[in-house]
């Protein structure tokens, strides 16, 4: 399965809300982490072990377009990936009822032996669009 075809939907619970009664930022990050973790699991890997590398989240940029409320269903998909020698950028799109509610870019480094490593060809293939 290509990475852009992997879609996961989350039911927004009361405990996912902030004081303003909409989805909290940290829960949105948790949804994205879970989405990526499930994609890797489908291929026999995990965030802690992708071809012997562990992942290190180095930067996140989120643009919220609409509020998300309790009982909404948030659908996440990966819209783009960019791979450089030591950086993997993954672009996520979140929708509710086919309307974009947020976009997010997550930058990851891959580590081996507690050092940031170059991204291997095997890892690159796993994340190609």
Describe this structure in words.
It holds the Pfam family 4HBT_2. It contains two helices and six strands; from the N terminus they run E-H-E-E-E-E-E-H. With 129 residues, it is of the alpha+beta class. The protein has one domain (3-127): Roll (Thiol Ester Dehydrase, Chain A), CATH 3.10.129. Strands 1, 2, 3, 4, 5 and 6 form a six-stranded antiparallel β-sheet that branches. A hairpin with a 4-residue loop joins strand 3 and strand 4 (88-96). The mean pLDDT is 96.
Give the helix/strand layout:
Layout: E1 7-11, H1 25-42, E2 54-64, E3 73-83, E4 88-96, E5 99-112, E6 115-117, H2 121-127
Antiparallel strand pairs: 1-3, 2-5, 3-4, 4-5, 5-6
Brief account:
It comes from Vibrio tetraodonis subsp. pristinus. The protein has 129 residues and is of the alpha+beta class.
Please describe the structure with a list of short key phrases separated by commas or semicolons.
Thiol Ester Dehydrase, Chain A, alpha+beta, 41% strand, 2 helices, 129 residues
